[in-house]
Amino acid sequence: MTTPLLELQGLSVHYGSVQALAGIDLVVHPGELVTLLGSNGAGKSTTLRAISALVPAAAGQILWRGGSLAG
Fold first, then answer.
1. Taking a C-beta distance cutoff of 8 angstroms, is the pair 69, 9 a contact?
2. Which of 5, 46, 56, 71 is deepest in the core (most CB within 10 A)?
């Protein structure tokens, strides 16, 4: 099996005392097309902001091709 292109492991994000994401897991393999669907306030934009390092992750890992994006 190939290494995932993008992997989220237990991703959590807080805005102050408000928990916006709680333990998100996601695996995207090369060649896959993925979309995030959900109602307003479901965490779609926050997930993308965390992947892009625009907001800090409170917990969990974001891996790109097996390597951590932390720091």
1. no
2. 46
| Contact indicator for 63, 69 with CB cutoff of 8 Å | yes
> 10-residue block means of pLDDT along the chain (71 residues)?
93 96 96 95 95 95 93 65
Please give the Cα distance from 20 to 36 (Å, whole number): 15
The Cβ-side half-sphere exposure at 7, using a 13 Å CA radius, reads 13
In the structure encoding, which two tokens stand for residue 58, read together?
């409170």
**Residues recorded for the chain:** 71
56 phi/psi in degrees, rounded to 5: -80, 145
Tell me which residue of 17, 34, 28, 26 sits closest to 61, measured CA to CA.
Answer: 26
* Closest residue by Cα to residue 13 from 40, 39, 51: 51
- Can you tell me whether residue 2 is helix, strand or coil? coil
